[in-house]
Design brief:
Mean pLDDT of chain A: 93
Radius of gyration of chain B: 14 Å
Shape of chain A: globular
Mean pLDDT of chain B: 92
Low-confidence stretches of chain B: none
Number of strands of chain A: 11
Strand content of chain B: over 45%
Structural class of chain B: mainly beta
Largest interface: A-B, 22 and 26 residues
Number of strands of chain B: 11
Radius of gyration of chain A: 14 Å
Order of helices and strands of chain B: EEEEEEEEEEE
Oligomer: heterodimer
Strand content of chain A: over 45%
Number of helices of chain B: 0
Chain lengths: 112, 117
């Protein structure tokens, strides 16, 4: 099975940096995803990591350590529009193409 | 606009009834995914189809079923509805879902809000 833990809420100031941690346990790992979801809207894909290391994409970066079952999403130069829920998800390596398990989400609040 | 369309946007029905949710993926995408999101359960993966065939199954109840048609649109059928089935149901699509990094980028539709009374 899979367990995914991420903080419930984080608050940061506009222009600052916030790091959202995600730890997971899985019987077979086949990739880790980060999604952004604004209230009342659909999730938006942010990143995908399958190998260890850092993936950078503009103001957002995602890191993965498979041996530690750990990932983080780094949001730089925070903007008010970054206030949203950030979901960490893991895909396992099952009999099929693998199912997804989502964390409960981290609500990021950006203040002026 | 992600390019993924879902109908209807809202659905209100009674317990015991059956409903069908429809999803049209982005042009060219072969994989379709279904998710359920409720306040107490968060986002739950239900099932994935690729080019008409089931490829991955999550926490989908036996009362629920899905299929993907030759034109690649997909339908999620929910039967014997219970109050607890009230949720937002999302469909997402991706190019294929296993081959390259880009294939894992899922694009979500706006969702169908189901209310069971």
């Amino acid at each position: 099975g899979q367990n995914i833990d991420q903080p419930t809420e984080m608050t940061a100031t506009e222009g600052a940096i916030v790091q959202i941690n995600c730890t997971y346990q899985t019987s077979g790992f086949n990739g880790l995803f980060w999604y952004q979801q604004h209230a009342g809207e659909a999730p938006t894909f942010l990143s995908y990591n399958v190998l260890d290391g850092l993936e950078e994409k503009g103001r957002f970066s995602s890191f993965l350590s498979r041996s530690k079952g750990y990932s983080y999403l780094l949001l730089k130069e925070l903007q008010m529009k970054d206030s949203a829920s950030y979901l960490c998800a893991v895909r396992d390596r099952g009999d099929s193409w693998g199912k997804f398990q989502f964390g409960a989400g981290t609500q990021v609040v950006v203040t002026p | 606009d992600s390019g993924v369309t879902q109908t209807p946007k809202h659905l209100i029905t009674a317990t015991g009834q059956r409903v069908t949710l429809r999803c049209s993926p982005r042009s060219g995408d072969l994989s379709v995914y279904w998710y359920q999101q409720s306040l107490d359960q968060g986002l739950q993966f239900l099932i994935q189809y690729y080019n008409g065939e089931e490829r991955a199954k999550g926490n989908i109840l036996e009362r629920f079923s899905a299929q993907q048609f030759p034109d690649l649109h997909s339908e999620l059928n929910l039967s014997s509805l219970e109050l607890g089935d009230s949720a937002l149901y999302f469909c997402a699509s991706s190019p294929s879902g296993t081959i390259s990094r880009r294939d894992y980028e899922q694009y979500f539709g706006p969702g169908t809000r189901l209310t069971v009374t």
